[in-house]
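Field guide to reading this record: the first block holds the primary sequence, the second block holds the structure written as discrete tokens, and the final block holds curator observations. Each block starts with its own label. This record concerns histidine kinase, catalogued under organism Gluconobacter albidus.

BLOCK 1 — SEQUENCE
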Amino acid sequence: MWPLGLVGRVCVVLTVAVTLVFLTNAIFYGQAETYIVDDVRIAQLGEALSTDLRVLAAAPVSQRSFLAVMLSGSELSVAWQPASITPVLPGHPPVALTQLVRRLTADDPILEQAHLDLYTLGPGSADVLGSQRLPDGSYIHFRVPGMLGHHRVTRGLASAAIAAGAVAIAATMLIRGLSMPLRALVSVADRIGSSEKWVPLAERGPPEVRGLAHAINAMQDRIQSLINDRTQALAAVSHDLRTPLTRLRLRCGFLNDGEAQAAIEADLDEMEAMVNGILAYLAGADDPEVPRTINIVATLETLVDDHVDRGHEAHYEGPDRALVHVRPLAMKRVLSNLIENAINYGGNVLATLRTREDGALEIAISDSGPGIPESEYERVLAPFYRLEGSRSRATGGIGLGLAIVQREISREGGSLVLGRGDASKGYGGLCATIILPKGLPSPSRKTEGQGEQV
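BLOCK 2 — STRUCTURE
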């Protein structure tokens, strides 16, 4: 309904309002233009019409046409018409002209008896035309040029149009100025809580915008404080958990019972994997890795070839080269996670890559396993959720694999879509599709230490 932004919407409303005012004024001027006639000119016209009527009424019929020409001038042109010709007059004259007739005949009984009629050539005409009847039934026709002062009205409308245009331009500039802080707020708000470096908002603009900028800065400071506290806690937990695990592993090596030693080491491996998975999930947002442009096909082929060397059925279909701007190690972990899931649950894997019509890069990892029910697609992306209720490592991980994948892909500006693979190719199980946006990043327009303009 409203596809325009704030500036466009306000400009549309302003334009409609100015247009309505302009049209209303134009209609008003069109209806009221006859009232611009000067009172002195009305008196002069009444006197001239009364004089012409008396002169022509007293003159012989043969001389009336000549006298009418003689009585004509720049302010009033007169013509005589015999009674044998019936004059054709327009329909109903404007209300303003009817009132003018009343003013002309109010103090002159001669004009009142002459059945004075006034009319114009049409809307916007400044000339007044009229007729009056002589006692013998003949008519006097006359024309008064510029009687209605139309030129003054036209100049008024033109001035109003110019003024309206100037107001509209000035208002548009002011509206754009007011909306600029809002656009800056939107740009900065998108980065709140993300891994991008926080640039505080400059608290400028109207009081409401300054208050909002101050609140956003305070909120981001609190978020940054929470992130710092979490980072310190993760560092402490990582050390405190890994240290006893290492001691247990060392003590396990001194056991004489080989079977018990193997069981304990398996439990330690499971505990370490769980700790590493949880720490990786919690610390993912603090990953300092810098994005760079890589050939993602090389990463895919390396992972596929590695599983082929380990005796797994793995294939890649797609181009030999596809450049993408990502964090290389994080993207490798994502692809490795999806490929290992496909091998574990489906026994084989097909990795495909293609460029979509909109330029985005699409990477699909399919397997021939049982897949996941469609109703579970959203749930399996949640942290610590597993389709299999137990937490046994023999039947899967701890439910963080797809959650980590989705978060890492989101950090790259992409998305993860779950679905079914192509059964005709033998890969009708789960298909995890990664969609990465097209294009390479442009240099940043802001330098460190500069505040966002508001």
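BLOCK 3 — OBSERVATIONS
The chain has four domains: 6-31+152-188, 38-148, 207-281, 289-436.
The chain has eleven helices and eleven strands.
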